[in-house]
Amino acid sequence: MGVKTTEVNPHPGASTSSGALLHNPEQLEARLREVPLEPGCYLMRDRESRILYIGKSKKLRSRLRSYFRGHGLLPPRIQLMVRQVHDIEFMVTDSEAEALILESNLIKDNRPYYNVLWKDDSSYPYVCITWSEEYPRIFITRRRHRPSSEDRFYGPYVDVGLLRTTMALVKRSFPLRQRPRPLYRDRTCLNFHMGRCPGVCQQRISPQDYRATLQNVAMVFQGRNEELQRLLREQMIHQAEDLNFEKAAQIRDQLHGLDRLTAHQKVSLPNDSISQDAIAMAANDHLACIQLFQVRAGKLVARLGFNADPQAATPGHLLQRVLEEHYSHVESREIPQEICVQHLLPEADVLTAWLREKRQQKVQIIMPQRRQKAELVELVERNASFALQQAQRASQEHQLALEDLAQLLEMDHPPKRIEGYDISHMQGSDAVASQVVFIHGLAARQHYRRYKLKSSSIAPGHSDDFMAMAEVMRRRFRRWSQAKAAGEDIREQHQQSSSPLHPMGLNDWPDLVVIDGGKGQLSAVMSALHQLGLDGDVKVCALAKRKEQVFLPSSPDPLGSDGDQLAILLLRRLRDEAHRFAISYHRQQRQDRMKRSRLSEIPGLGPKRSRKLLSNFQSLSAIQLASAEEMAQVDGIGPALAQQIWEFFHPQC
């Protein structure tokens, strides 16, 4: 691949001193004249040099010029982006396929705001295999981000029940580690004796053999069931010929498990040689639901789901972006021979070339019009329509709950951003607080925040929930208080706070703050906000646990409410989420303290070396199971200290 990088604005700071390019025609034209009519990628930056958008094109100059000449015809979201562009950079490539690969890598590395088409796919789970670990784990997760690029994700899956059934069948058919941590330090658990686990915790199986088992499991989630069954039959025959009947019987049981798994697949096409993907969408003015069906050997093996903003691009462009995103994260053998699409893709030839190069075999992208392939696309479209209807019903329920909440609290409009706070500790030790955020009635986990409480009045043996809540409020709203003291108009900043590209970084103003507690906690919060000068700007209420009563600062009595009304149910859901998040963080802090305190009992092992051990082995249990030679390989831990640590955990040996 040949990539020639050229920056349109070679002078740092030049873009920040001038205005937006849309309002400077001469400067814009000068920039565009420097852009060649060649394939490549372009980066649009704002006045703070933050990347707004990354795109690709066959002809860079023509594509960039279309943003500014046809500005009024662009979707509202892209119009907003173009008004913020102060600088443009570009990278020239040798081909369109190279531009596609480069764009994918740049987006994954930089995550520009306007490239994120997906509103929220957290409702769909993935299967993760941690290939970066010596003994990889396999589990279901709703978060796709992992620290290592070696870890693999499969999904997202729409049918959560079927996914859990598949995982249960896989764990019954293949001997896999069943627990994230060992149950016993020096012996195996019942799963090993039942044949469910190969004894990973005691290293009864080598890493190579265990990874070979997981490679077979990965084939299930790649849709390669038929290939896996052929492979296992060959292994079974080979083991039987070698008179290794016990191993042959184990493989036979795995084949039976795969047969049970195949029985759960709901669609079977007449031609069992078909290996294809089909993609379609259904959309309204606010949401586009896109589904991708994976058909392998004539059977539907997976149904993946994505959500997108329908105003961000045309239907064909949305489908193309989903396919680019999906296939950039899969192995080459997972790419099918044929992809059936509902709408014409704007750059189907580029995508086809990229997939052929990645798969090293022929790949076709077609828009079928008749017979079985068209019927498959229609089936996918119907499923996308059902998903859209479900999303609409959920959205309507959330909107009704928000309107009911606004009426209960006498607010002018339904709250968009609601924040919930809770405190968690054990008699004052490991005291922490949580901040959870609901946007439009849905949990927005990317905005969650955790606090380690620092107040001197909170210590082991002595707790003060009122002081703890006041401390959290002071830390949460400190920036807003400083902005107000500097003369900023809080009302105006509040109106602009919904933009993630706010120039001052003040983009997190809540419409409502919910405190877990009663009048005492509420009074402490209002006192803290009064010290910040924001007591008249922040809308606050408290939800008491015992009778689910709602309190406002303006009244000593609880509001008249029904425990089953939508507003109270929404507040309870927010409160319970804040409670869950706080408890999980408290337990994590307590476990870390217990680990540190146990290691601190070892003579010669200080805090710095303890952190290195925990960083290398990830847990105290792993350190206990490690040999002295393995511990000696950690930076700062020599053979003598490693032997001393090993003897501390194995005094009987």
What is the straight-line distance between the termini? Answer: 58 Å
Uncertain segments: 1-17, 263-268, 499-504
Number of strands: 19
The secondary-structure class comes to alpha+beta
CATH class of one domain: Alpha Beta
Question: What can you see in these coordinates?
Answer:
This protein is 44% helix and 17% strand. Helix 6 packs antiparallel against helix 10 (245-263) and helix 14 (465-476) packs parallel to helix 17 (519-532). Residues 1-17, 263-268 and 499-504 have low confidence and may be disordered. It is of the alpha+beta class. Strands 13, 14, 15, 16, 17, 18 and 19 form a seven-stranded mixed β-sheet that branches. Strands 10-9-8-11-12 form a five-stranded mixed β-sheet.
Summarize the structure.
The chain has 653 residues and is an alpha+beta fold.
Name a few traits of the molecule.
19 strands; globular; 44% helix; 7-stranded mixed sheet; GIY-YIG endonuclease; alpha+beta; Nucleotidyltransferase, domain 5; 653 residues; 17% strand
